[in-house]
Every structure is written in structure tokens, then in C-alpha cells.
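In response to the reviewer comment on reproducibility (Comment 2.3), we provide here a single inverse folding case reported in full, input and output, so that an independent group could reproduce the run without further information from us. The C-alpha cells appear first.
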């Protein structure tokens, strides 16, 4: 039986594969100082939007996680919205891209890029 860590950010197998590919495309895959920065910003049709980027600078209040071999960093304010969220990736006909399975969201928009709590 496997246990799921509480108060973390999770990364699916599909998301991991896409992150690795994007890091290789950006020529930063072999640089251990780079990680995936996940954040929440105001905006979007539901009030809050997700933000993803590669970064190599950890700030004083950042929260650092590793799941499925992917180092994920978020600021403390964003983490309050992202606790136990899973980052996933879809390459299906209904849309291609990263999406978040966020148990904290009370609603999300049709495009899946914004949410409310």
C-alpha cells in the first residue's frame, strides 16, 4: 500500500514527461539548479489563474517539494491555494496542455486555466 504525502504538490507521469521534454528543449535539463515554479495570480474568468515557469532562484518564503522526480517550488501565498493539487498534462483532442486537479477550487472556468476558492 502506498501513502500519499499531505500538504504537497503532486506531479503526474504525463506532466513529468512533458516537463522533462520542455527542460530538454530549453537546454536546462542537465542544470540541477532549475526547477518548475508553480504559482497562482489574480485574473482569468474565475478570479485566479495558474502560472508555470522554469526558475533557478529560490526566494526566502518559497515552499519546495519533489514529486515523481520533479522539483516543484511555489511561493507561500500560492501554496495556500495549491495544497494537495496535482499537476497533469493532456494531449487529447479536447485540449492540449498542463492542467491542475485542485481539490481547493470551488469552481473553475471552461478553459480550465482559472479557478475560484
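Designed residues, in position order:
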Amino acid at each position: 500500500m502506498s501513502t500519499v504525502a499531505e500538504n504537497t504538490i503532486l506531479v503526474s507521469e504525463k506532466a513529468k514527461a512533458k516537463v522533462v521534454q520542455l527542460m530538454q528543449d530549453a537546454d536546462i535539463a542537465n542544470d540541477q539548479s532549475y526547477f518548475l515554479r508553480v504559482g497562482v495570480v489574480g485574473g482569468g474568468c474565475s478570479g485566479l489563474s495558474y502560472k508555470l515557469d522554469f526558475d533557478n532562484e529560490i526566494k526566502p518564503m518559497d515552499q519546495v517539494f519533489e514529486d515523481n522526480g520533479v522539483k516543484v517550488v511555489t511561493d507561500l501565498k500560492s501554496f495556500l491555494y495549491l495544497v494537495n493539487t496535482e499537476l497533469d498534462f493532456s494531449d487529447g483532442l479536447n485540449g492540449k496542455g498542463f492542467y491542475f486537479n485542485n481539490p481547493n477550487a470551488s469552481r473553475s472556468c471552461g478553459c480550465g486555466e482559472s479557478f475560484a476558492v
